[in-house]
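To assess whether ligand presence alters the predicted conformation, the chain was also submitted together with zinc ion. Input:
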Amino acid sequence: MSEHVNTPLSQRRVGTAAVLPIQDVTATMPIERFRGGGIETLAATSPGLAAPSSYAAFLVRRGAEAVLVDTGLGSEAPEKFSRLPHVLERAGLAAGDIGAVLLTHCHMDHVGGLVKNDSAAFPNATLFLSEPERDFWTSDAHMAQFPERRAGFLFVRRVLELYTGRVHTFRFDETVLPGIRALDAVGHTAGHAAFLLESEGESLLFGADIVHAALWQFPNPDIYATFDLDKDKGIASRRRLLSLAADAALPLAGAHLPFPCIGMVRRSGDGFTFVPDASDTGG
Ligand SMILES: [Zn+2]
């Protein structure tokens, strides 16, 4: 942990906005968690193989405005390590300065940071999440259908209670904040959202969890994670959004991309390659 303390804050400029990755931890994704696109053959011959990955959220600064895209693992459970408070402090921000939190989806590694000491970690923030994502996690039928995710369902419901009156649900293609549009990324979860940030003619795509294992899923987007809710929709969303990023030369920011969790996507054969930003981009 301590090696992070004096690391300069990495950031990427998008017009007048700055996007800062907040990487909680570096991680690896084991090949056994992936299927499709022929990866089973690789898994059979190379058991234990793992792809470099991350758990991350992002801070967007536009003048005095501070917006979070997801909140990372949070710090409620002892095994969790959240770098969010550290990055905010280094950026000269208090929790009360965060005006909005855009949620790509409601898995624990994205909503964990919303709660601190069973209170709203961001007392002035409005939460934005998609209608289908809200509907999924508040459905008792779905909670009964996915007993292994019961703790997650209860956590999301607690979040919605703690932020009562400050939750805005959106539809895909809606402009959620000036210069930020929500895009359909459904598949990983029922209401999985990407966000397109535009400022002064420049853009960046927050791709959420369309890629968990960059090593395998950029070259072959048909490879899916076993924890994707709807693998076919997930594959379609991955191909659609990676095509958008590649064809429009949009930097892609992703919660599970290797640090600095932002880079460029290029077409390569039937798939893509990913070129991560230098980790000190923009200084
Ligand atoms: Zn995730």
